[in-house]
Design a protein that fits this description.
heterodimer; A: about 120 residues; mainly alpha; 4 helices; elongated; B: about 270 residues; alpha/beta; Spore Coat Polysaccharide Biosynthesis Protein SpsA, Chain A; disordered N terminus
Chain lengths: ~120, ~270
Amino acid sequence: MSTLPFRAQMVAACLALGMFLLCLDLVRRRKLKEEYSLLWIGVTAAMTVLAFWGDLLLWVTRSVGALNANSIIFLFGLGFLTLVAVHYSIRLSELTDRNKDLAQSVAILASEVEELRKNRHP
Amino acid sequence: MNRPEPNDTSAAPATVRTPDEIKEMSAIHHGLKVLAIVPAHNEGETTAEVVRDIHRLAPGVDVVVVDDCSSDLTGDWARKAGARVLPLPVNLGIGGAVQTGFKYAEDHDYDAVIQVDGDGQHDPAEIGLIMGPVARGEADVVIGSRFLRKTAYKAPLARRVGMILFASVARWAMRQKITDTTSGFRALNREAYRYFARHYPTDFPDAESLVLLKRAAFRLSEVSVNMKPRKRGQSSTTTLRSLYYPFKMTMAVLVVLLREPPKRPAGPGGDQ
């Protein structure tokens, strides 16, 4: 038994495939780190599974207590995007910190270089 | 405590110093190798004046100006005045700038550091006064307080509200009465500045850094200093930021209380 009509399944499959290919290409062109590609490839896999395995979708819908399978897809979609955003905030804070440390090192080294130059050509 | 009333406009006379205090002031660096850290952002010639004042009123104290990516010639003026300049390639804010100074001091093995604002608010003649307790080993960090006694200092209204609010939050968090939690005129011994070289809050560092110190069991004390109104330039705390200030400060202080304080480096001179 499937909860999604055949046409919808096909659309989901095409979207998933398209996204998968995009991820591969981005990694190939070194625009995306493998670490992140894994995440997005996981998303495409989950999309495909849910599209074709209707029973799983129904089971999840029932066990959560939702009335409509569609809302479950949106729930997970939103939840996932929220987690991604939080993850990015964490990375951003980390990068800010490293950026600060680097800037500080550069400032100290720049002054050392200036001092060395001054001593070499008095 | 003689905190100035919010609408007290009468300028209080400059503090009269006792002979002991005068003796303390004239000891300047108390025989230690001391670095004055002057963070500056678009202060123009004012920072250079501060540098010259330090050379004149506190001879024997090395000066390093941390130029927080100024768009004017702050760094050049300071260099001309004879200071070593640490030019930050990106703007880090006052906390990040001061921490650069701590790292520099650690590289060059100073016994103690003095923080002096680059806008000319602090009187370098008082360096000896705030160095005293650090030099004698009575405190790890000494804060030059504008409120310990009645002084001529008067802050802008928005800033004053923030300061009073956070003085109380910080006082509660530290279980020690610090009258001036936002003072940028401080002396730190080697252990304290080495700690800050590793762990220093960068956004609104003043009160948060004090709570952090207290949590890591450093000894804090205050001495009374005179504060001049800034010669020129903007305070790092603008109106918009003073709205953000209470929120960020409360949050920061609570978070510092919630987490384990980062470990202090082991022993004097010990490396992590």
